[in-house]
Amino acid sequence: MSKAIYIVTTEPNSGKSIISLGLMQLLLGRTAKVGYFRPIIDDVPKGKTDNHIDTVLSYFNVDMKPEEAFAYTRSQVVQLKNQDKDDEIVGHIIHKYKTIENKFDFVLVEGTDFSGEGAIIEWDINVLIAKNLGIPAVILASGKNKTLDELIGNLYMAYDSFKEKGVDVLLIVANKVQPENITIVSNGLKEKLPNDVLVGTIPLNPILGSPTLKEIAQELDAKVLFGEDYINNQVGSFSVGAMQLRNYITHLKDNSLVITPGDRADIILGALQANISTNYPSLSGIVLTGGLLPEESIIKLIEGLSDIIPILSVARGTFNVTNKIGIIRPRIYAENTEKIQTSIQEFEKHIPTKELAERLITFKAKGITPRMFQYNLLQKATSSKKHIVLPEGSDERILMATKMLIDTNAVTITLLGNKEQITSKITELDIDLDSNTINIIDPKTSDQFLDYANTLFELRKHKNVNLAMAKDLMEDVSYYGTMMVYKGHADGMVSGAAHTTQHTIRPALQFIKTKPGVSIVSSIFFMCLPNRVTVFGDCAINPNPNSEQLSEIAISSAATSAAFGIEPKIAMLSYSSGASGIGEDVDRVRKATEIIKVKRPDLKVEGPIQYDAAVDAKVGLSKLPDSEVAGQASVFIFPDLNTGNNTYKAVQRETGALAIGPMLQGLNKPVNDLSRGCTVDDIFNTVIITAIQAQGL
C-alpha cells in the first residue's frame, strides 16, 4: 500500500501551500504520525530554514529536524544535472524519502516551486520523483489571468503527462478561481478528466493573496518602530499619503497600508486616529519612507497611544517602496496562524476530502521502478548482513565489485585464490581495497581443506568418489566455495565470471541439492525496464523443459517475484494466445498452465499467451478479455532456453534495460551463476540478491 502523496504544481505562485496544509490536517485526522518531505527546496541563506518546511513542521508539531525534511537545494540539483548525475539525484531522494517513510504512518511530499535557475527542468523532475517513489499525485494550477480553456487545458496536459509516465493522479485542483466561476470550472474539469480523478476548485481568497506586515518588513529590510505585536497584520491594499490629511483619509479602506514620508506627522497621526475611530476603516500598518523619523515630540505622542498598529521605517524613497510592495509574493509562514487556518478551511470547503481520504487509504502502486527496486535490494541486504564467497578472487571485475560491496556495508565477502596474486592485482589496478580487511582463502593451504575433502568424500562415495579424488576436487575454487556454503561457513556463493555455468553449479547439484518438493533448478532475471521491473524465467539453465518442469519453473519464479516485492502475474509464453494455437509446443505450455492452476490455484496465471498480449493492455483485452494477467504480466515464463536467453538479451540490448541475474531457484542454499561477459555492476547486483536469498533460509 502507498504511504504517501505527492503535491505538484504546473507553475510558480499557484498557492501550493493551501494543498499542503489542508492535506496535512486531513491526514492527521486519520493517522497518528505524518511526515513531511520536500525533495528539492529553493536555496536558503546559511543558517536559515526553508519557509515551507518551517511552517509545516512548526504548526503541526512534526517530529523532524528541518534538515531531515529535504534532499537537495535547487543549485545542488542544477550542478549535478550539469554533470549528468541524474541517477545520483534520484537515488539520494529515494534514500531520504525511505528514511522518513520508515518513521511515519504517512508522508506528505511537496514538489518544487518553479522559481530560479533550472525551473525549465522542474516538471520532468517532479514526474520522475513521483514515479520512482511509487506514490500518487495531486496536481494544482492557478486560474489567475487564464481563460477557462487555458486553465482546463493546462491541468489536463499535466494529468496526461503524469499518467503517460505511469504515475496515478488522485486529485486535480484549480486554485485562485474567481468566485463566480467556481461551478463552470468544476464542471469543465469533470467533463475533461476521467471519472476516477477527483476535482477541487478553490476560489481566490483576499486573505491568502495579500502579504502581511512581516513579509513587507522583510522584503524592504525595514525597522519596526512600533506595534511589533501586530506584525502579522494582513495588508488588504496600500496607498501613498501625499495629499492633505483631510483628503487622504477619505481614501482609506479596510486593512489599508499607509505609505508616507517619515516627516509627514499629519498623515501619521491622522492615520493612527482613523484606525481607532469607529467612523473610519481599521488599518494594517504604516510605512515611513526616506529614512526619515518623526520628531521626538511626535514619537512621544505615539508612545502614549493605547492601540498602535505596526509602524515601519525604511531607507528607500516613497516611489521605490510603493513599487516594491506591489510585487511582493505573499507567503504562508509559521507565525501567521490566520493564513494557515484560512488555508485549511478553504481546503476542507472546496476539496472532496472524504473521497480523497478513501483513495489515499486504498491506493496501491501498480509496479516498482528500477531505481526503487535496486534501492530496496540494498536496504534489504543491509538489514541482515550475510557472508558471500566469491571463488574467482583474482578477476579484475570481482575485485572492483568487492570494493563497492564493502563500501555499502551490505555483505561480508570472502575471496578464494592465491593471496599474493590477489594482493598484487589489487595494487596493480589501484583499487582502494585493504587486503587485510577482507577474507582471502587459498583452498590448497586452507585450515579447512582436509575437513572439506573428507566431507565431500562421505557425500559422494556412493558415486565412486574416493578420498584422493575428493582432495583433487576440493582444490577447485568452485567446489571449495560450494562446500563453504554447505558447511555454513558462508551464506551463499557467486561465481561464473571466469567459469562456465556447469562448472559453477555442478557442485551445488551434487551436494547442496534441491529443496524438498523441488525437482528442477531453474533461473530468473530481474529485468529493470525504464518504468517497471519484471521477472524472466528460465533464461539460463533448462534447454527444453517439459510441461511439469515448466510449471515448476513458473511456481518457483512466482515465489521469487513475491519475495522481492513484485506481485506475480504469470504469463506462460508461446507463439499463440488462448485456445487458438495447435501444435506440440503450444500444447506443452497449455498443459503446464493447467498443472499450475491445480497445484497453486491462488496464483494469477495465463497461458498460452503471446508476449504482446502479456504486456500491452489493448492487445491483451482484444485477445483475452477476461484475463487477470493479459496486458499486465510481471512474470514471463519462456517455453525453452533458446527463446528465453535470446529474448532477455534482445530486451537488454535494445531498450537499455538492466538485467539482474541469473538468480538460481530451487537449491537448498543460494549459489548463483554469472555470465562470463558480466560487468562490475552485474556482479554487485548478483551478490546482493544472493545475500537476500540467504536471508529467507
Could you give a quick summary of the protein structure above?
This protein is of the alpha/beta class.
Enter the CATH topology name of the largest domain: Rossmann fold
CATH homologous superfamily assignment of the largest domain: P-loop containing nucleotide triphosphate hydrolases
What is the CATH top level name of the largest domain?
Answer: Alpha Beta
- Spatially, the strands of the biggest sheet line up as 3-2-4-1-5-6-7
Helix content bin: 40-55%
* Cα-based radius of gyration, to the nearest Å: 34 Å
Calculate the mean pLDDT score and round it.
Answer: 88
User: Strand portion, in percent?
Assistant: 15-25%
Provide the domain count: 4
Key phrases:
4 domains; seven-stranded parallel sheet; single chain; Udp-n-acetylmuramoylalanyl-d-glutamate--2,6- Diaminopimelate Ligase, Chain: A, domain 1; acyltransferase; 697 residues; alpha/beta; Rossmann fold; 44% helix
